[in-house]
Amino acid sequence: MSSALPPNSTIGILGGGQLGRMLSIAAAQLGFDVCIFTDEPDSPAARVSAKTFVASYHDRAALADFARRVAVVTTEFENVPAETAETLIDAGARVAPNPKALAVAQDRFDEKSFFNTLGIATPPFASIASQADLDAAIATISAPAILKTRRLGYDGRGQIRIKTLDEARGAFAKLGAPGILEGFCAFEREVSIIAARSTNGDVAFYDLCENVHAGGILSRTTLPAQVNADTETRARDAARRVLEALNYIGVLTIEFFVMPNAALVANEMAPRVHNSGHWTIEGALTSQFEQHIRAVAGWPLGPTTRIADIEMLNLIGGDADDWPTLAADPAAHLHLYGKRDARSGRKMGHVTKLVRP
Ligand code: AMP
User: Fold this and answer.
1) How much is the pTM?
2) Domain 10-95 fold
């Protein structure tokens, strides 16, 4: 990308969920308009954006029209079909992050292989296309392990923990091919690093986030993470390698397991803003959402300094029904995503609490 987009330019976002909504709010603050492209009518992001296309991600005519109306296209989810990104580029759109970054993050096997090529440790893993692959992988990786779908898994969906070969075969029958078998990591804690890279190659990092998941879904993020400075340096170093190898523009997140010997083991990356970075709205000088918009618009990155100790709690399913109590708590910054229906396991909002030292 050559020059900085001036205010009043239109930024296109693929996806209409809460990440798109918070990106859109941040873009508006910098004087941009946002145009959302989503296949979901009445989406959380559409309701705070200047314009929305509701169409299939395979609708070439709608994508070409969208591409003509926006100065740059970014995304709030990694599972953008490869064909969608190609259609947008063919129609002349600038797409950031680039399609290679999206492709790597879409496939758990490719993602872990990519980490390994950069010298970033992962759990032991094997691609599973057949029961013979599964039997061989169990023999080398050994149980306990986790069988996951290679593609389209999120928030703990598309994965089954297994303790025996029989359980592994049952899990494979349920999930189907292509899969990935991963050794189970008895980690001490989970952390994530949120990093950003600008069009001129500057890189910025937020402080390491410590995350607790329940049923595969993020439930709580706290800062500072209870790790030593060296662990934080290694996480930053890994993120820098990933950003540079992909010639990445925008915010990127990597989730790690911290092992009892302090080793960092990469679980996955998200080529986008991330739930574990929601605290940055109130807790950092520049939010991850503003940072992403700055990067894809070719603007300089903002300062990432954290201003307080943090606790961020996700409001999942019926948790958001408690909004009157949360709204009355002066310590709680309440965010609700405007989703119409609170299905169980659905992220409905979050609360950030700042403890100033
Ligand atoms: P994922 O969808 O891969 O991010 O997994 C969701 C959550 O499941 C992670 O945040 C971990 O808590 C747990 N998990 C996933 N993979 C592993 C693994 N190989 N070993 C231990 N726990 C895991």
Assistant:
1) 0.96
2) Rossmann fold (3.40.50)
